[in-house]
Q: What sequence folds into this?
């Protein structure tokens, strides 16, 4: 492994980090028009490059960037010798530029007397492709620049003298311009607006950029007053809106500046294209976000160079633009090389592709990538051969399944699965009890889930899975119970034999390595079944919510002004009914006379609703059928838990708190939401519908 790859593995190895935002990259070049200067947008990248066509009136089609190898090496040198500021706390472009210049002067890379000239150049206004040229077209400006700077080195003494005079005149005009603008009080040095312009806000190109994208701005140009290049790479602590710098109103996270002596405009442009292409590369953009110092960025370039394919000159036309592929290759394969938690390191030696999970594999004992397991399963041809290979492969990593369970993310997954299992067991346990006349109820569902789940987690390769009854199982048990009852068969005995038969089938399938057949089965079956289960759970939740509104209707007829008319009284039954009630009660408790005397002496106005109905009284009044708005409260708890869970899940990608705190909140979003709204329910003390857990094993 190369030193660059080793360094990248260290900084990119953490898989629990949130994905980085998509980067929109824009390259602006410095244009001269006499004494005036401005930055003109020349290219942009989301994934592929788009150039401003000659004439400056339209964009080219997106195409794959073709870079010269020399420009990549020059870029590497620029990052080695220039200024690199990582996590700069910047809030405006003038402040960022001041910090960059201060760092350059501090490191001895820039003369202090050039401070204001550099600031003046970098704070010129930016003209984007949406705007028309102010004085003349980009082609004319390009011609004038090329005519002034791209002279032949072989010339006569007279021509050479004339060239030097024109160069001196240009320098004098620029110096006079700098002097006038530096001391003029009526004009600010900053030509860039602090807020996005109307053209930026109306730019339809924003629709092509993802919502949470960030920008990287590349500024390249040549000036007469510099003797050596001015190079700076800046990563801001937080993405900041820099007004009119970017074509679209997207906050800037990265800034690359390259100003150099006159005469090398083409070289500067190629270096700018190189860094812009790197910034939209999936691997290098991750490096740029996570780099701790200059060496990490250089390692990212080195790794990029390792994967670059060079086309020999003379055998192809550099002006031909390569169209983007119809299917862009996934960057995950490139990134997986640098992952510390890749499959090979978790489950055995890395890099294997011959062994499969479950029923088959080669004899080398290597683990394939997770996404290749279905494709790599092979039949071993030996009795329990696949089981033997599974045990051999898994045994060295078996202890880690337990002590890694104390990792904070494992704990969040365990709590989530516990809640998923227990609520499922109670819900379907109650439904099973109704379907089987309580031969299988909540307690049986609890014990079955606990015992089968424990055995599965101890001996299977995947402990993080929800095991419980589902909709199809409920239907099967209902039909089986009806069949047993209709044919005079003992349901429990019949159910036992079905379970033993299922277990025998599983053992035969394992012993004969039959699981390799799964390589011929598509994901459609699994996804179809998963969709069915998901719809059953969603339907069940909505059905219960609608049922709550039927059982506890909202009191829409309640009028606060008529509260004096709402009352409910308990009316005693006729005296002749006491005897029948006493006889019934005496038949149960053997003391009918005692109860009859008590009923006669009862104060019926002081009885509760339940007591009144128990002793044969009747309820009279408009408020007797009143029920609190429990359905509305249940809906608030239901929708609140769901909304809070989604919000906390997305909190991982917000800009508040450190990364570890955000990840912790996102991991425990389900637990926090459930606990919070259980607390809300307890505070109100309403008798909302709840899952009733048995208090004894019975």
A:
């Amino acid at each position: 492994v190369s030193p660059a790859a080793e360094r990248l593995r260290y900084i990119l190895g953490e898989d629990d980090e949130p994905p980085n935002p998509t980067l929109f990259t824009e390259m602006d070049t410095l244009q001269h028009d006499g004494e005036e200067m401005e930055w003109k947008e020349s290219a942009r990248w989301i994934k592929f490059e788009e150039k401003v066509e000659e004439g400056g009136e339209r964009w080219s089609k997106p195409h794959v960037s073709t870079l010269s190898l020399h420009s990549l090496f020059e870029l590497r040198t620029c990052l080695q010798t220039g200024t690199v500021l990582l996590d700069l706390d910047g809030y405006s472009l003038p402040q960022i530029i001041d910090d960059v210049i201060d760092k350059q002067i501090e490191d001895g890379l820039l003369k202090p007397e050039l401070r204001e000239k550099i600031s003046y150049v970098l704070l010129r206004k930016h003209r984007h492709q949406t705007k028309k040229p102010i004085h003349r077209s980009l082609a004319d400006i390009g011609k004038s620049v090329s005519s002034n700077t791209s002279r032949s080195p072989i010339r006569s003494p007279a021509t050479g003298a004339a060239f030097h005079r024109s160069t001196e005149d240009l320098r004098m005009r620029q110096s006079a311009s700098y002097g006038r603008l530096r001391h003029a009080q009526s004009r600010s040095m900053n030509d860039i607006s602090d807020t996005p312009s109307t053209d930026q806000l109306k730019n339809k190109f924003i629709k092509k950029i993802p919502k949470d994208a960030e920008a990287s701005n590349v500024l390249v140009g040549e000036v007469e007053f510099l003797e050596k290049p001015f190079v700076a790479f800046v990563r801001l602590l937080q993405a900041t809106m820099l007004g009119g710098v970017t074509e679209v109103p997207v906050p800037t996270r990265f800034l690359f500046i390259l100003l150099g002596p006159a005469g090398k405009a083409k070289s500067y442009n190629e270096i700018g294209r190189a860094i812009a292409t790197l910034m939209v590369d999936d691997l290098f953009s991750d490096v740029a976000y996570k780099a701790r110092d200059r060496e990490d960025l250089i390692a990212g370039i080195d790794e990029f160079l390792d994967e670059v394919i060079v086309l020999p000159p003379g055998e192809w036309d550099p002006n031909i633009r390569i169209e983007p592929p119809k299917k862009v290759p996934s960057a995950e394969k490139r990134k997986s090389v640098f992952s510390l938690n890749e499959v090979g390191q978790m489950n055995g030696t890395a890099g294997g592709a011959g062994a499969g999970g479950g029923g088959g594999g080669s004899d080398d004992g290597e683990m394939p990538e997770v996404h290749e397991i279905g494709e790599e399963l092979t039949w071993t041809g030996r009795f329990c051969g696949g089981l033997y290979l599974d045990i051999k492969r898994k045994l060295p990593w078996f202890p880690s399944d337990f002590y890694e369970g104390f990792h904070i993310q494992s704990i969040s997954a365990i709590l989530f699965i516990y809640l998923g299992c227990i609520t499922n067991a109670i819900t379907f346990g109650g439904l099973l009890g109704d379907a089987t006349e309580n031969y299988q109820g909540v307690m049986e569902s609890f014990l079955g889930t606990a015992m089968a789940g424990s055995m599965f987690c101890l001996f299977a390769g995947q402990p993080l899975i929800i095991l419980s009854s589902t909709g199809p199982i409920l239907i099967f048990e209902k039909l089986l119970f009806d069949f047993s009852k209709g044919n005079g068969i003992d349901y429990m005995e019949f159910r036992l034999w079905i379970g033993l038969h299922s277990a025998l089938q599983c053992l035969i399938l394992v012993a004969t390595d039959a699981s390799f057949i799964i390589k011929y089965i598509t994901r459609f079956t699994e996804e179809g079944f998963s969709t069915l289960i998901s719809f059953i759970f969603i339907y069940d939740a909505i059905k219960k919510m609608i049922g709550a509104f039927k059982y506890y209707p909202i009191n829409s007829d309640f009028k606060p002004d008529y509260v004096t008319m709402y009352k409910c009284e308990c009316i005693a039954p006729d005296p002749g009914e006491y005897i029948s009630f006493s006889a019934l009660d005496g038949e149960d408790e053997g003391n009918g006379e005692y109860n009859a005397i008590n009923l006669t002496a009862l104060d019926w106005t002081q009885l509760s609703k339940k007591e009144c109905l128990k002793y044969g009284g009747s309820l009279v009044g408009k408020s007797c059928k009143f029920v609190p708005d429990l359905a509305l409260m249940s809906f608030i708890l239901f929708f609140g838990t769901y909304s809070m869970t989604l919000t906390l899940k997305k909190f991982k990608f917000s800009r508040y708190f450190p990364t570890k705190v955000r990840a912790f909140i996102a991991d425990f979003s389900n637990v926090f939401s459930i606990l919070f709204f259980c607390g809300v329910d307890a505070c109100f003390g309403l008798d909302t519908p709840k899952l009733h857990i048995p208090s004894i094993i019975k």
In short: Residues 116 and 675 are 59 Å apart (CA to CA).
